[in-house]
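User: Fold this, then the next.

Assistant: Folding the first:
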Amino acid sequence: MAPTTLRVPITNVYADGDYTAQIQIGSSATPANVILDTGSSTLAVSEGLYAAHADSAMQATALAQDVIYGTGGWTGPVVTTTIAMGANGQETSIDAYLALTADQESGGFGNADGILGLAFNALNSAYNLTTYLTQQSIDPPVTYPWPFNLGNSGAALKQFATFLSRMREEDLPPYFTALEDQNVSRNIFAFYTLRSMVAMGTNDPATDPLNNGYFILGGGPEQTDLYAGDFVNVDVVDDLWYNTNLLAVQVAGCKQVEAKPLSKQYARTNISNSIVDSGTNSLYLAPDVYNAIMSSLNQVNPSFAQAAQQASTQPIPASGLNLADWPDITFVLQGENGQPASLTCAPSTYWQLDALQAGQAMFAIFNAGGVQSILGLPLLNNYYTVFDRTQDAYGVIRFAPIAAP
């Protein structure tokens, strides 16, 4: 059977700007809206959504996972069951690992049901509790039903993470990787998105075309109606995340400023000075990159820097902005063949109009405070973005100007 290519509708209304797609879980095809996240690899859903005990396809395991995101964390058992995506779920139905968030900090997934990580195996670690469960006389020695009662506090989850770290660790194949391994889907996917925060300018944000897009499973460049122009190809330099090398940043009308490379002390843990992350609804930049942008905005017009700083903490009236006066911001990354590859972020995406409520605006560029820049949705919103893992050692990210809706 030839690998499947699916165009899957996605929306940002469930997860406060992050995009979700619907999957079907188990023998009863329980629907779940999961965040599509290239910054992680785990497939997890809230335990209350899915009745694992009633799923004839479910198999319990001795595995547990514990994951901490910037928005919160969770822990819980790992099971295997059938997972499918798309209107005709049978096209992509395979047995895959699924974590259930038995204990979870509130708000971690917004109003979404879970998360589907699209990164590589190294970010999908689980802990094998067979020895511990046997010692506790849990028969059979499996983690579902969940034998712990932790509560939903961050402190409890961190303490449990310390306990798990003493167990044997295993890397599990993520759902997307398993699709490729079983020749169900090619090792490529793509995003068509227009917003990084929910547009609240209509009476029904869920039906606003700005808040909806597409996830292309198993394909990319062949979807020619979703982009206009040639692709710019950025090299993925490691598969810890979708690691990239950010070379420089330039605000239009100002000089280009080189981005600092990682110092040796961070090279082992962070690998590179930037990553591309579909699960981040802003640009979280290393201090040197952020400061270069703010200094350049101040050079172009001091009122720009003042407005940007104010609107990064609370919304400001959109009526005070004339985006036609604001400059483009260009990020220069290492290209597929080592040459510089320039990607431009327009004012209409680094500013999010009608954010939080109609008539308000938020500035979507922040100082991450760390050594790595996270290039999230405000950059991707300018491009039809293809994560092509069929190329080179770790893949290539291809960016083509996005077609208007």
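Now the next one, as you asked:
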Amino acid sequence: MIAAPAHTPEPLPTVLWFHGFRADALAHVADIERCARAGFLAVAVDVVDHGARRDVRMTERIAHAGGGALEVMLQCVDQSLTELPHLIHDLVHAHGADPQRISAVGISMGAFLVYQAVADGLAVRAAVGVVGSPERPDERSPHLLPARFRDTAMLSVVAEHDTSVPPAAAHRLHASLRTIHPLAVQRIVQLPGVGHLMSATQWRTAMDVTEAWLVEHGT
């Protein structure tokens, strides 16, 4: 799903938007339209096995996975990451995306994907992880590769009372970045009194912070 600004010359700063586990790209229509009004080519992406390509066996997969929902979620993340270079190529050649100005926003599972994309070396100009984690239980965990974040403007938006994805992991990553790369562009914002599932008002606050970051660092 693509939203583009009106009457803006190409090439366009671009933001890829990734949804949460068992949600889909349609959940973020309003968010990408907001990004388009801010001047971005905004693309909401259905993660592998979600949305238009939903895996009807998802509940069964989770039940049989040794690592439960986290294991299945990370499978979806990793499979989606293999698609990103092809998606970006198509956006550049068919929709006027600027390959030097690709940013990414992820919500929950989507934030796991965004952190991993940066750690895997994808050229991301600005990144926003909302109520997600840069830690995973294997050697690819983004928090083990802080050097990869040096050239990406990294914003994490976390929720104080998030029990699904506790904010401590994102705080640890940003503490590491401040130590290893003191000049790196990075910030963590913790929303007080907020849980993993936000009210409409809390979501607007998170999106205000996200848009400001993208406009400042992704254009």
